[in-house]
Amino acid sequence: MLSSSTLKYAYYPGCVAQGACRELDLSTQALTQALGIELITLKKAACCGSGTFKEDSQLLEDTVNARNIALAEELNLPLLTHCSTCQGVIGHVNENLKECQTHNPTYLEQVNGLLHQQGCLPYRGTTEVKHILYALIADYGLEAISQRVTHQLTGLNCAAFYGCYLLRAQKHMPYDDPFRPEGMENLFRAVGATPVYYRGRTQCCGWPLASYATTESFKMAGMHIQEALENGADCIVTPCPLCHLNLDSRQPEVEKVINKRLGLPVLHLPQLIALALGVSPKELGLDRHIVSTKPILEKLGIS
Predict the structure, then answer these.
(1) CA distance 149 to 274
(2) Stated pTM of the model
(3) What InterPro entries is this protein classified in (predicted)?
(4) Residue extents of the structural domains in the chain
């Protein structure tokens, strides 16, 4: 574990946090600033592809994301993302290309050859891709975070929604159990909140189906939200903006499909932790959500 004063990352904000979920970028910036973590934004980074590039070409996905990783390597910093999908895609590419250095150097030469044609830096395999959840746990430390808490989230029942990519897109998962994770729940405890366990917390939110099987997608999301409510959740907390879109932004449509009122707030992980550190709801963009976050703030006595 590193001293918090030494923590510095190449920040990969991704697409969704700069568009439909701008509050995720706001809250990530606010949280890291409150913790004294330095972020160097990779302004030249490209979309990871969300797993769709490889449907056309695995080489395309690998080359685009080798370039993203090379931008972090140029800074000699780990690449930090707050998106489970970006973590899954870029982390998987990083894992595979590191293996290619030993087992398939010809393929890596092909990737770097394409990067060279575009005037880009080569992939060297010298850094790691880390989601902010595990940067907080493994680098900053749960105890250090608990010491920075100024507003204990006592009495707030939080249901983690890990989704797919964070847990199972990579071959190796050094920070958590991909089938029985506890990372988010341990982080909830560190800020005084109570974890809620339910079956759907490690399943797909339904987002990948939304463009061609909308009803099925919304039924999946509705099932997870209902399960969280039935187990006493005050909110769902997710480390993925795509999950957030399906669970929060589309919750009114989900309600119509399942013919049931839900009204369960869905928070981005950085928003929850930053609340405990005393960052204001306005700074965290909590007024940007489709499902009102006021019940959470009222329960916590935060105005």
Answers:
(1) 9
(2) 0.95
(3) Cys_rich_dom, HdrB/HdrD_reductase
(4) 8-130, 142-300
